[in-house]
Structures are given as structure tokens and as C-alpha cells.
Amino acid sequence: MRRPVVAGNWKMHGTRGWIEQWLRDWLPQLDSRAELIVLPPAGYLGLVRAGLDGHAVVVGAQNVHAEPAGAYTGEISAEMVRDLGAQVVLVGHSERRGHFGETDEIVAAKVVAAHRAGLRPVLCVGESLDERRRGDAEQVVLRQVESVVRLAGWERLDRAMIAYEPVWAIGTGETALPADAQHMHATIRGWLGREAPELARRMPILYGGSVKASNAKALFAEPDVDGGLVGGASLDAREFALICNAV
Ligand code: PEP
Question: How many CB atoms lie within 10 A of CB 191?
């Protein structure tokens, strides 16, 4: 009943010429029943949206500021990325939490902003290696989800997706075992289901962390893994098409 989703997060990569070539390489190789999302750097949202005209692919932003407008030099709002064609936005990516000090409060404010602007938030959560080694992974992840639910409110998450991205697996080549990913996804869905059973049943929970063509099929085969959030491997159009087609 949940349609799988595959999203490609380009992070801070790409230039006009590279993007045009990537689209030429990627689009003809697609044969996927997943909802597909491309997340370019904000300055290229319009270019990517135009390049995807006529294709059933959603464009999303990697980040937004919580305020709609104001004296926040260098920032971009949810309303602005929506205006540029984005329909989805990542919130709480571990690189934002780690490099830019984003707390659960900031993440929740961005979920509120996404809702206000009509964007679907993809709430990223995940534990560090130390937290996993200490046996705290589930507690950390559920605390991240719960904080956002409490601060932003269930209604702001009505159209949201969650991306479970163990921090130790992002950009490292290390991937969670499919059974471990399934366990965490089922734990998150179980927690959501205690208060919002209908939402829990329909909310896509994506796995992220060194997804590649070689491991995508096994991960996506797990019943609570509804697709993937793909970083590094999405920069290679051929590899990313194989991941999209693995659904
Ligand atoms: C990401 O950026 O969300 C991600 C999962 O990166 P990678 O696939 O490179 O680990």
C-alpha cells in the first residue's frame, strides 16, 4: 500500500553542464515503479525542474530556513524553494545536525516551515557509531522522532517521510545489514503506530547510508524499508538509475 520512494541527495555537487549531462544519462535508463526525487543544491532547483519537464520525477531541496523571509543572509526559505519547483525538503540531515549545529528544536521548526509552504518534509534521523556501540541506537532515533512530533505536532507530519540514516553509514561505504535496517524501521513505525496508527501505516520510511546498486535490492526487499535516500551513489547517473530500478 505504500509506494516506494528513491531520492537522490546530490549534497553540494553539480554545475550547470554536469546537471544537463546527468539528466541526459539518467532519464533514458529509468524503469522504476518508485516515486523518484532529485535533490540538487538550491541554486539549481529551477534548472533541474525544467530539465525534468514531462517526467514523473519530483524535485526537492536539501535544506531551508525556518522563517518565510527576513534578514538571514545566505539562507533560503521553504516558500522560495517551493517557488523554484521543489515539492519535498530534507530536514535534520546528519550533515546539517553535525556541521551546522541543528538541534531537534531547529529541525522541528523546519518541519513547521515545510508544512506552511506546502512541502513534504523528509525527516532524517539516525544514531552515531558510539551510540550504536553503547546499545543506544533505538533510544536515540526514537528520541529524534519524538522531539519533532512533540514540537511540530502530528498534523505537520501528515505528508512527511522519515529517512533512517545511521550516521556511521553515511558516505563511509558501510551499510546497515538489511535485517538491522528493517529492525529500526519497524521500531520507528511501531512507535508512530501507538499514537497515529493510520499515519504509521502510510508513512514511507526510507533507508539512507551508502546505498549502492549492489545492496539496494536486498535493503528495499525488507517490508518496512520503503526505498532509499541516496547520497554519493546518486551522483553517478547510471548507478542511481540501477538503484531506482531495484525497487
Ligand atoms: C545522504 O546524504 O543522505 C546519504 C545517505 O549519503 P551516502 O549515500 O553517500 O551515504
Answer: 17
Question: How many residues would you count in the chain?
Answer: 247
The span from the CA of 112 to the CA of 89, in Å, is 12
SS3 118: coil
92-138: per-residue pLDDT in tens?
Answer: 999 999 999 999 999 999 999 999 999 999 999 999 999 999 999 99
Our answer on whether the CB atom of 232 is closer than 6 Å to any ligand 1 atom is: yes
Domain ranges of the chain: 5-245
Residues labelled catalytic: 93, 165
Task: Give the cell for residue 179.
Answer: 535485517
Distance CA 77, CA 67 (A): 6
- Closest approach atom of ligand 1 to CA 95: 2
Question: 23-34 as b/e, with b when 16 or more CB fall inside 10 Å?
Answer: beebeeeeebeb
Query: For the chain, what is the radius of gyration of the CA atoms?
Result: 17
pTM value is: 0.97
**Atom of ligand 1 at shortest distance to CA of 124?**
3
User: For 5-245, CATH number?
Assistant: 3.20.20.70
Helix (H) or strand (E) holding 146: helix 137-152
Q: Quote the CA–CA distance of 197 and 215 in Å, as a whole number.
A: 30
CA dist 172 and 224 (Å) reads 23
